[in-house]
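Lab channel / #folding
Pinned by the channel admin:
"Please post every new chain as: sequence first, then the structure tokens as a reply. Keep commentary short and put observations after the output so the thread stays searchable."

First post following the new format, from NK:
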Amino acid sequence: MLVVKSFKVGPLETNCYLIVDKKTQRAAIIDPGGISVELDKKIHSLGEKNVDYILMTHGHFDHIKKATRYKKLTGAKLMIGVNEAEFTKNRRLNLCRIPIEPFEADVLLNNGNIISLGETKIKVINTPGHTVGGVCFIAEDFLFSGDTIMRGTIGRYDLETGNLNQMRESIKKILDLSKNYIIYPGHGEPTTLQEEKICILKILKYSF
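Reply from TO:
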């Protein structure tokens, strides 16, 4: 069983998640774009060395800015999509006005990769469009969507490396999933896949 805790971090109120495999207490952080005192408390209570991974859905600053800080705190491996590798080193790509210190991911993720977190399996799916190498993470009943899909809307595709056609394909890939996942987005409140199948196709008039 996977336990999910959400924390709003940084000036854009990015959703940073702490996910914990309940049986083994192994944990991962998703999208640490800022510091959260409450997250720090949870990590300390859990045990810093129980955090195995820092997963990044994409490389914009509000999702990666404190990745190295949390790596130093926990020793966790930094993971990002293979086509997003340059974002952690390139200010033009990560959009940070005040440059963050460049860093390398420990693991570059490919579509279909499976990450073992205790007894929980986390599947990586490529979802370019918001950025060229964005990914989503699926674990049990949850889908962590970054800025690809959010409650009632989708992410921007007009930023550096964004692409409308790729976004369409990524949204279609998510909406075609058969399970009614709880979606934990990069911004805003959680939603469900069934809600978005209705809402996005209706409000945004996407035709796939």
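NK: The mean pLDDT is 95.
TO: also worth noting, The helical segments are 37-46, 61-64, 67-74, 91-94, 164-175, 193-203.
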